[in-house]
From TrEMBL, chain A:
Source organism: Australozyma saopauloensis
Keywords for this protein: Nucleotide-binding
CDD domains per record: Rab5_related
Name listed for the protein in its UniProt record: Vacuolar protein sorting-associated protein 21
An MF annotation (GO) of this entry: GTPase activity
TrEMBL record, chain B:
Provenance organism: Australozyma saopauloensis
Residue intervals of the FUZ/MON1/HPS1 first Longin domain: 153-277
Pfam families, alphabetized: Fuz_longin_1, Fuz_longin_2, Fuz_longin_3
InterPro entries for this protein: FUZ/MON1/HPS1_longin_1, FUZ/MON1/HPS1_longin_2, FUZ/MON1/HPS1_longin_3, Mon1
Region annotation (Disordered) ranges: 1-20
Protein name: Vacuolar fusion protein MON1
Domain FUZ/MON1/HPS1 third Longin: residue ranges: 508-614
Length: 214, 628
């Protein structure tokens, strides 16, 4: 690499009803993989992934939260300092769209004012072939999604973690909306508190993440 | 009500009767003279030929003076871990003699000739054949209403008002009736008395109730081996189920849910995943296997250890590891607790030191860390806890159950991309009204098939990044240490070698050894390599034999200052089995042998196991773990 692009660290949180495919989207983004029977997330999972957007490298610090109702009270902990959020619903489940509305509202009320939110209708693969037929699995139309996004000032995508349709696009779009921030200086960028006397120069356990293909 | 009209078949199990302690009373089996003779070589075999010496004590039991002579035979070269230091040749001869006496008397009272075996159903002690459709009908969990009463085991979680919250089997239609009936029985019994309703038992049927208002937990069993024991086994199972409920909900959430509305449906708070975990738990606790079928593939996990743990009063399993390595891991935990990090200027707080205000510029990184575990394959490798607090085994088991429900480790193609997990858990015996926060990460060591799992339990829900940094530190330390990175995988992999072959006790097919004080056990690794159905039946067979052994009448004898408990049992099942239990205040040894082994072999081999386990207890058991 001849000249290092500036790296911006972005805290991103995924919210949405259980089983809409949050973890699957992250798995697609981070590992370019998909699992038919992904087990529900318990609590939350933290991952990082770098992504090149224009001439910038964005390092996403991703909180993939659990959709199960009983973890809902923990959500503020994850979105409180987030610069970006993915509010995910399942386009074959109307209830998940209602839940998505609630999350958008809550984020606007509770999260930081300049948070970038993307509304994501997932499982596009299930309806991709039969968009017009009457017995389509689709229960939330693209227009409904778009309308909500416009109303609330959100990015909008329909994705499929399974076919990988639009997945990288979501992260690139978010990346381009995030203003340039101070460069990352330490492993846990956005977090105060440098490791003082600890020698962490052991094997880099998870530092050679490859850039994603976006 | 569920009842079983079939008369219980008599198990072809022969129990020993109390033996007279008379030294020469044995008449059948081995002639005592053949092993108490003056033949020094035989004498050595008795107390394990690998021992350097046999200590001879003559006081204590008032037995006839022994004619045994001290062995002068030199110790044959053995792998170093097999050589026992002299002080561990801990079996005073009278004890060895007494064992022979006991076994021979027991044998004398049983019929020595193998009668061949009729088909024997270990679940009901009848002659009904166990095949796949039998398991389907009586054992496998089914949420259909139809066939509900055929199941041999039932678990219910009900609200005090009689609303079903969880049931191992059946659908709402059948459950509503049963729930009402059970709550009525419990309520009408408890109304008239100050007593808590505990159980109903009758021939081949037992119902045990745990009243944890606003919940009632119920277990109903018609499984033969569960009925051999007292109520404790089913009660322990119920409290495991309750402990899991508390782990996900905590006591105040349950109470609050019911506060105003006695019919609150707790099912709305529990997720589908929780109910699935309860299915796994109840099936494992009863039958030693669980259904892990997903949409496409039927699959079962066979593992008798949960049942064995409740049979052994919630003892937990530790990973075998040399004490040097364990000490190194312990040191890493302790040093992690002491790590300091610089505080950013803004957080630095002035504090009074002497008369000067100075700025506190560092803080402890892991100040919120309460408990830490390194786990390998569901066994504890190393454990850290505060001086003032210990976790009870029930809580540790619940934690391990929770862990097994997280995404199976190592499924990600790229190890680097595995996430850090962070979730709340209520460890009810520790504190049933609050949540701890659990950080989980896997470490994949080269040459090791499974990952090492690090669990860090913190009291502060906002301490994720501190726990993550602590984990970075711990893993870096492990990987940087030459000894640990090379020997740890090697030793952990060795944990799968059958101990009976390491110990050269070929007659003992399988054993369990428990240290009482730590309440931890090890068992010979079990390998189930046949097809699923056979593995399930084999596993249940092991549960049957161990339960039968531990419920058989035992004899207590005094050896010096310690009371020894002895049980000898034979089963005319399959090829024939011999079971032997040897216990005192320190340990419990459960042995299963194939065929009817002689007292000589049985005693020599079981004492060898006891000696070996006591000698290597530091590598076999972690004890209370390391504290800070
Ligand atoms: N057909 C299809 N299935 C998907 C897609 N994304 C996820 N799934 C499936 O939907 C199920 C749930 O996916 P998860 O990623 O676990 O959902 P989640 O939102 O993380 O769920 P929680 O962790 O419980 O909140 C899994 O069985 C996935 O395989 C998709 O784009 N198309
Ligand atoms: Mg998830």
């Amino acid at each position: 690499m001849s000249f290092a692009p500036s790296t911006t660290s972005v805290k991103l949180v995924l919210l949405g009803e259980a089983a809409v495919g949050k973890s699957s989207l992250v798995l697609r983004f981070v590992s370019n993989d998909f699992q038919e029977n992904k087990e529900p997330t318990i609590g939350a999972a933290f991952l990082t992934q770098k992504c090149t957007v224009g001439d910038r490298t964005i390092k996403y610090e991703i909180w993939d939260t659990a959709g199960q109702e009983r973890f809902a009270s923990l959500a503020p902990m994850y979105y409180r300092n987030a610069q970006a959020a993915l509010v995910v619903y399942d386009i074959t489940k109307p209830a998940s769209f209602i839940k998505a509305r609630h999350w958008v509202k809550e984020l606007h009320e509770q999260a930081s004012k300049d948070i970038t939110i993307a509304l994501v209708g997932n499982k596009y693969d299930l309806v991709a072939d039969d968009n017009d037929s009457d017995d389509s699995l689709r229960k939330v139309s693209m227009e409904e999604g778009k309308a909500l996004a416009e109303e609330e000032g959100l990015l909008f995508f329909e994705t499929s973690a399974k076919s990988s349709h639009n997945v990288n696009e979501v992260f690139v779009a978010i990346g381009s909306k995030i203003p340039e921030a101070k460069p990352v200086t330490e492993e846990l960028g956005s977090r105060p508190g440098n490791v003082g006397r600890i020698d962490l120069s052991g094997p880099a356990l998870r530092s050679n993440l490859s850039d994603c293909a976006c | 009500m569920i009842s079983d009209d079939k008369p219980l078949g008599r198990p072809p199990m022969l129990q020993s009767k109390k033996s007279t302690h008379s030294f020469l009373s044995s008449t059948a089996g081995l002639n005592p003279a053949s092993f108490l003779g003056t033949d020094a070589t035989t004498a050595v075999t008795l107390a394990s030929s690998d021992q350097a010496e046999i200590a001879i004590f003559e006081e204590g039991l008032g037995l006839a003076k022994t004619t045994l002579s001290r062995s002068s035979r030199s110790v044959s070269p053995q792998p170093s871990f097999m050589v026992l230091p002299p002080q561990l040749a801990l079996d005073p001869l009278p004890f060895v003699e007494l064992l022979h006496d006991f076994v021979n008397t027991s044998i004398a009272k049983t019929d020595d000739t193998y009668k061949g075996s009729k088909p024997f159903n270990i679940l009901t002690e009848t002659e009904e054949d166990i095949d796949e459709s039998y398991l389907e009908e009586k054992v496998h969990i089914s949420k259909k209403g139809e066939g509900f009463t055929a199941k041999l085991k039932q678990f219910f979680i009900l609200s005090s008002a009689g609303k079903p919250i969880y049931s191992m089997n059946g659908d709402d239609d059948v459950l509503l009736g049963y729930s009402g009936l059970i709550t009525t029985i419990v309520a009408s019994f408890e109304d008239g008395t100050d007593l808590l309703f505990r159980s109903i038992s009758q021939n081949g049927f037992r119902m045990v109730v745990m009243n944890k208002s606003p919940l009632i937990l119920v277990a109903i069993s018609r499984v033969s081996y569960e009925l051999m024991l007292d109520l404790k086994l089913l009660e322990s199972q119920l409290s495991s189920v309750y402990n899991y409920l508390l782990a996900v909900l905590s006591a105040p959430v349950i109470t609050k849910s019911f506060h105003n509305r006695m019919n609150y449906d707790l099912r709305r708070v529990l997720s589908a995943q929780d109910l699935k975990t309860l299915d796994i738990l109840t099936s494992m606790l009863t039958f030693g296997f669980s259904d892990t079928t997903d949409d496409e593939n039927k699959s079962y996990t066979v593992d008798p250890s949960m049942f064995i743990s409740s049979l052994l009063d919630d003892a937990v399993q530790c990973a075998r590891l040399s004490s040097t390595l364990r000490a190194k891991l312990d040191d890493i935990f302790v040093s992690c607790k002491r790590l300091k990090v610089n505080l950013p200027q803004s957080e630095a707080t002035p504090f009074l030191q002497g008369k000067l205000y100075t700025l506190e510029t560092t803080k402890l990184l892991a100040s919120d860390l309460l408990f830490a575990f390194l786990i390998y394959d569901n066994k504890i490798v190393s454990h850290l806890h505060p001086k003032t607090h210990c976790l009870e085994n029930k809580d540790i088991s619940t934690l391990l159950l929770m862990l097994s429900q997280l995404s199976p480790a190592g499924e990600s193609k790229n190890v680097q991309e595995e996430p850090d997990l962070w979730f709340p858990i209520c460890l009810a015996r520790f504190n049933d009204s609050g949540f701890l926060h659990c950080y989980v990460r896997h470490l994949h060591l080269p040459n090791l098939s499974r990952p090492l799992t690090l669990l860090l339990l913190s009291g502060n829900k906002n301490s994720f990044f501190e726990m993550k940094q602590s984990a970075n530190y711990i893993f870096a330390k492990i990987c940087k240490s030459k000894t640990l990175s090379s020997s740890l995988p090697e030793e952990l992999a060795q944990g799968y070698l059958p101990l009976t072959s390491v110990l050269k006790t070929p007659q003992v097919k399988h054993f369990i050894y428990k240290r009482r004080k730590a309440n931890q056990y090890i068992m010979d690794p079990l390998t189930f390599s046949k097809d699923t159905f056979e593995n399930i039946v084999d596993s249940m067979f092991i549960l049957y034999l161990y339960t039968a052994l531990s419920s058989s009448k035992s004899e207590e004898v005094r050896v010096g200052a310690s009371m020894k408990k002895l049980t000898y049992t034979r089963w005319h099942l399959k090829e024939g089995f011999t079971g032997f239990l040897l216990a005192d205040e320190k340990y419990e040894l459960y042995c299963l042998c194939k065929g009817f082994v002689t007292s000589l072999v049985l005693i020599e081999q079981s004492l060898r196991i006891v000696n070996w386990c006591e000698n290597y207890r530091k590598r076999l058991f972690i004890g209370p773990g390391v504290q800070f």
